[in-house]
Specification:
The protein is built from 28 helices and 31 strands. With 794 residues, it is of the alpha/beta class. Strands 17, 18, 24, 25, 26, 27, 28, 30 and 31 form a nine-stranded mixed beta sheet that branches. Strands 1, 4, 5, 6, 7, 8 and 9 form a seven-stranded mixed beta sheet that branches. Strands 12-13-11-14-15-10-16 form a seven-stranded parallel beta sheet, with helices on both faces.
Length: 794
């Protein structure tokens, strides 16, 4: 009988590694948080996350082995040694663990993949496994520096106490940055999803450099006061009073780490006036510069921060993925394309990347469900419109000037208004009403209207209209339900309305300030973990802005037990995940001009209100956020997701009988599920969206992968009783009653209840006879296993 995966590790792989010089302190088991899934409409976290088996080098003079160099994928002895290699190749590179070497082993032999050369070697016996000295030499050649060099000293510094709580990918990002610096690089770009802890990475990166004696002065630059406050708190937690905020009149010249906004430095102005920067900080004053939100760069405006410190190590932080392809023809996409090109031209490709999809899969970011909705105006889908509403579409409508209220004729309208101009230059009250009503019903269907929600609107006036409509809907609902209204339900949160004053209540109060309608104020830099819904009522042409907007919902919130959030997309904004599709959506969408909808050059924009418009909102489907083969996040339909799940399942276990045998064995089942898409969440997500909780995951997967008609748990127990009547009646009565009671536990809670250690102490099983009754017919464990097999065969 071959060894299981766990036994293969303990009895074969670990001893072989020890024999080759890899002592236990050099073997690190990196565990993720545990993916989030949905049960009965509510998010739950798996008890265990993915565990990666990494090897770290012993370095003379270092307090602990810090330098990860290899990843090992252990498989059960019965599998070929290369069985797990494809699965973990992607974990090794600059998107996951950042190690140059990957090994897969069945305990008897191993196969190696070199992430630098992309070459895979053939099977070799474990007695040939590389020693720590072997991998150190190869690591130093691959990375381009010696671990004994002064340049590598920051890499060898232990984490401070706060850094001990680091997540595996944060450690990987810090190592990637320090490796590039040690190899002589001066510019480092780190691409990490909103909510994944970019500030934590930057702080601990600077701390290690400081502990190595290589930090003279550092500048941390961000683009708004909220970000400055967050960064300052994190830096002072590690650097104490050595970290200080630069403000007008106080450049903090005695501080070792200075936190400043672009505005304070005077470099966020159209004329490029950097008087504060040039007056207080001479050239090369800073040895290290960290640029937060580098994706918001305007290189002609604040590049002096970098050019005046050209000899400094410069680290850029961004949440925009490298793979975004700017395929749309719009002014904002052109701006984004330029910013991204500037970032990569200046910093080079990211030293490390961690995407939203990866964060969700690992369980560090909230699970995302996308609900798309279509808006129809006069019978056409507005997001597909090339020219939008033409003047002729307005001929039978009532038109008003939005500011004066005066009646207008159709001749005073523009030739056409594209979709990006709606609620900006063409206001449609019926559209606002129908969209708000649809959203409010979604909130009612998913837990009630009092959920922290951000609605991104087209303009300031649009944010007003949406807040008013949501408040009206809420007031009517409270009246019908006989409930007291929250003091503040929906509120406008824009720069013009002093929105920053409302943020503490929105962030922290659970009794009011539920719906924030905004334009750009909440796009970046605002950490509101309780947000459960991100809503797009505006057209978005900027992938950079889109990723920031979506990021408002990705943070987990232990205080409210938030593990998931929903994106309600009314404007096809989620097409910008990965920018796969070309669209004909025109114009501005970002609060600026709406392009051709405004008529001729030089014409003053006039905002028109149009009444009596035929508006319909329809459900366009639920989508699931997942990652593709290259690690890029992408939303897919449920059918596409099921096809991916089926393909992986059949690749793992081609035969239904083998699948059933795997399912019956708990360890083998868990290992099989972990290898399915999204870290094992896939069957749980599919059940949530396409079945009901009355079905066990066994039936979900048997249906998706093997086309076996699914049975509910209770239906499966009934079939078990019918098909196994003779087997049951051959038992002593007390044993039969106990076996039936055990089967009834499956009807209540599925496979997990059937395998619960407490099953014999449940009232039904205990009163039927319990474990003693099973002994009258054989060994209890074997009888329970046979009962499981027959339940799943029924």
């Amino acid at each position: 009988m071959t060894l299981s995966e766990a036994d293969t590790k303990a009895k074969l792989i670990d001893p072989a590694l020890h024999d080759r010089g890899w002592s236990e302190d050099l073997i690190r088991r990196e565990e993720s948080a545990g993916a989030v899934y949905v049960v009965a409409g509510q998010p739950r976290r798996r008890a265990e996350g993915r565990v990666d088996y990494t090897l770290r080098l012993p370095v003379r003079g270092a307090a602990e082995p810090l330098v990860a160099v290899a990843l090992i994928e252990a498989k059960a002895e019965r599998y070929p040694p290369a069985h797990g290699l494809e699965q973990v190749k992607g974990y090794a590179d600059s998107r996951r663990l950042n190690v140059p070497f990957v090994f897969s082993s069945n305990g008897r032999q191993f196969v190696e993949f070199d992430a630098e050369t992309r070459v895979t070697g053939g099977p070799r016996p474990m007695t040939d496994f590389p020693t720590p000295d072997d991998l150190r030499q190869r690591y130093e050649r691959a990375r381009g520096f010696s671990l004994d060099s002064d340049a590598a000293r920051p890499l060898l510094q232990p984490y401070q106490a706060a850094g001990d709580r680091r997540r595996y990918y944060q450690d990987a990002a810090i190592r990637a940055a320090l490796e590039k610096i040690a190899a002589g690089g001066k510019r480092v770009l780190l691409t990490m999803a909103t909510g994944s802890g970019k500030t934590f990475v930057a702080v601990n990166l600077l701390r290690k450099i400081a502990d190595a004696g290589q930090l003279r002065r550092a500048l941390f630059v961000c683009d708004r006061d909220e970000l400055r406050s967050q960064a300052l708190a994190a830096l002072q937690n590690v650097f104490g009073n050595d970290a200080a905020p630069a403000r007008a009149g106080n450049p903090q010249l005695n501080a070792r780490v200075i936190v400043a906004t672009y505005q304070t430095l005077g470099v966020d102005t159209d004329d490029g006036d950097a008087s504060f920067l040039t007056a207080h900080y001479p050239e090369d004053y800073f040895s290290h510069v960290v640029i937060d939100e580098a994706h918001r760069s305007a290189w002609g405006r604040w590049s002096q921060v970098l050019t005046r410190n050209s000899n400094a190590v410069q680290v850029g932080l961004t949440a925009t993925p490298r793979e975004v392809e700017y395929t749309e023809d719009s002014p904002q996409s052109e701006i984004d394309r330029g910013i991204t090109a500037d970032n990569f031209r200046y910093f080079d490709n990211p030293a490390y990347e961690y995407s939203i999809g990866q964060g969700i899969e690992d369980g560090y970011l909230a699970l995302m469900e996308i609900r798309k909705n279509d808006i129809f105006l006069n019978g056409y889908r507005e997001s597909e419109a090339v020219t939008g509403l033409a003047r002729s579409d307005l001929e039978d409508k009532t038109l008003q000037d939005a500011l004066t209220g005066e009646a207008l004729t159709v001749d005073e309208a523009r030739d056409s208004y594209d979709a990006a101009a709606f609620e900006g230059y063409l206001m449609i009250p019926e559209r606002v009403e129908k969209m708000c009503r649809d959203l409010f019903q979604h909130l009612l269907d998913t837990g009630g209207p009092e959920q922290k929600t951000i609605i991104f609107c087209a303009r300031d006036a649009h944010a007003d209209d949406v807040a008013i409509e949501m408040n009206n809907l809420y007031a009517r609902w409270c009246s019908l339900e006989g409930r007291a209204q929250a003091h503040v339900y929906a509120f406008k949160c824009t720069a013009a309305s002093g929105g920053n004053d409302f943020l503490p209540d929105f962030r922290g109060n659970s009794a009011h300030h539920f719906i924030a309608t905004t334009v750009e104020l909440l796009t970046t830099g605002v950490d509101v973990p309780p947000v459960r819904n991100v809503v797009f009522f505006r057209y978005v042409g900027s992938p950079i802005a889109f990723y920031q907007m979506v990021g408002r919902g990705t943070r987990l919130d232990p205080a409210t037990r938030k593990l998931m959030f929903r994106v309600y997309d009314y404007t096809d904004a989620t097409r910008l995940f990965g920018e796969r599709m070309k669209t004909t959506l025109g114009g501005g969408g970002e609060g600026g001009d709406c392009g051709p909808c405004n008529g001729g050059p030089g014409d003053p924009p006039r905002t028109i209100v149009v009444h009596d418009m035929d508006v319909r909102v329809t459900n366009a489907g639920t989508y699931i956020m997942t990652t593709d083969d290259q690690g890029r996040e992408t939303p897919v339909t449920l059918d596409e997701y099921k096809q991916r799940l089926a393909a992986r399942l059949l690749e793992e276990i081609p035969d239904l009988d083998d699948f059933r045998n795997t399912w019956i064995a708990p360890q083998q089942r868990r290992a099989m599920i972990d290898r399915l898409p999204d870290g094992g969440r896939a069957p749980l997500i599919v059940r949530h969206l396409d079945y009901t909780d009355a079905y066990d995951l066994y039936d979900v997967l048997a249906d998706v992968g093997y086309r076996q008609p699914p049975r509910t748990r209770s239906g499966r127990v009934e079939a078990f009783s019918d098909h196994n009547r003779r087997w049951l009646t051959d038992m002593p009565d007390v044993t039969e009653n106990t076996v039936r009671a055990i089967a009834s536990q499956f009807a209540r809670g599925g496979t997990d209840d059937l395998e619960s250690p407490q099953i014999f102490s449940t009232p039904d099983v205990a009163s039927a006879g319990g474990i003693a009754a099973l002994r009258q017919f054989g060994k209890p464990a074997e009888l329970v296993t046979e009962t499981k097999r027959r339940i799943f065969s029924a």
